Amino acid sequence: MLAGLSALCVLSVAVGTRDVGWDDIAGALRGQVDTIGQATVAARIPRTVLAALAGAALGVAGTIMQGVTRNPLADPGILGVNLGASLAVAVAVAWFGIASMQAYVWVAIAGAGGTAVFVYAVGSLGRGGPTPLKLALAGMATSVAFASLVLAVMLSRGDIAGGLHAWQIGGVGGATFGRMAHVLPFLAVGFAIGLGCARTLNSLALGDEMAAGLGERVAVARGIAAVGAVLLCGATTAICGPIGFVGLIVPHLCRLLMGVDHRWLLPFSALAGACLLVGSDIAGRIIARPGELDVGIVTAFIGAPFFIWIVRRARVRDL
């Protein structure tokens, strides 16, 4: 996985709308921007780093959400968490005039956390509690509603609609290390909480009664793990926009590769998520050359058939 990620990062730096040579790549890595090729590579380096970080964050967040809810359909996009963060940022930009990345991050995390609580509460209503199918349906309904509200906010503010629309698609273009510096502390805390909850997630996978019998405080354990996922989703959405399906695809593929032990599953999900998003970004540059497709569009093309396959494989009535 590490070798694959390294190869994809090299391709991400080398491939794009402009052809560059190895001399330009070597010069840009040394900090030189004397030629157009070197400047092009220098712009691709932070973009590659952001794609890897965002993919790792979404992969780990999806694994945590599936572990906390014991729901094979759990994903920051399907459960509406990404759209909740997106709506919060759109409202804050349109009505309160926020402009700094640091403010974006706090607002996005608050929106992601509020949406996660809301979807879980709605999915818990009725007989049987928060079943996987009820959570998925509640998340999808919330996503549709929030997407409509984001559109309404953009229509009411034509002066900022263009920027919000581009951000709403989800992408890593225009990344800079200065912008990433604002989200790194939140990502670091989210990764630390998520990886630290690996044993707890293993216990929760056995069922609430068994986890309680093993000494876990189930509600507290779920809450702490969910905080890690919300931090990762909110910080990623703030800087990239809502990118869907990464948190759905990656955990399933990693379970096929190395099993269900979260002590291994979480780090593998981080690497696999980074590989998926960097690879999707490269594909977006190649498919639409000389233009580009945002990475959120590419992951949607990959993730939608994968979602259908999971539903058919698990059978909706068994979820």
Automatic annotation (TrEMBL):
<feature type="transmembrane region" description="Helical">
    <location>
        <begin position="295"/>
        <end position="312"/>
    </location>
</feature>
<comment type="similarity">
    <text>Belongs to the binding-protein-dependent transport system permease family. FecCD subfamily.</text>
</comment>
<dbReference type="Pfam" id="PF01032">
    <property type="entry name" value="FecCD"/>
</dbReference>
<dbReference type="GO" id="GO:0033214">
    <property type="term" value="P:siderophore-iron import into cell"/>
</dbReference>
<feature type="transmembrane region" description="Helical">
    <location>
        <begin position="135"/>
        <end position="156"/>
    </location>
</feature>
<dbReference type="InterPro" id="IPR037294">
    <property type="entry name" value="ABC_BtuC-like"/>
</dbReference>
<feature type="transmembrane region" description="Helical">
    <location>
        <begin position="48"/>
        <end position="65"/>
    </location>
</feature>
<dbReference type="GO" id="GO:0005886">
    <property type="term" value="C:plasma membrane"/>
</dbReference>
<dbReference type="InterPro" id="IPR000522">
    <property type="entry name" value="ABC_transptr_permease_BtuC"/>
</dbReference>
<protein>
    <submittedName>
        <fullName>Iron chelate uptake ABC transporter family permease subunit</fullName>
    </submittedName>
</protein>
<dbReference type="GO" id="GO:0022857">
    <property type="term" value="F:transmembrane transporter activity"/>
</dbReference>
<feature type="transmembrane region" description="Helical">
    <location>
        <begin position="264"/>
        <end position="283"/>
    </location>
</feature>
<feature type="transmembrane region" description="Helical">
    <location>
        <begin position="77"/>
        <end position="98"/>
    </location>
</feature>
<keyword id="KW-0813">Transport</keyword>
<keyword id="KW-0472">Membrane</keyword>
<keyword id="KW-1133">Transmembrane helix</keyword>
<keyword id="KW-1003">Cell membrane</keyword>
<feature type="transmembrane region" description="Helical">
    <location>
        <begin position="219"/>
        <end position="244"/>
    </location>
</feature>
<feature type="transmembrane region" description="Helical">
    <location>
        <begin position="104"/>
        <end position="123"/>
    </location>
</feature>
<feature type="transmembrane region" description="Helical">
    <location>
        <begin position="176"/>
        <end position="198"/>
    </location>
</feature>
<keyword id="KW-0812">Transmembrane</keyword>
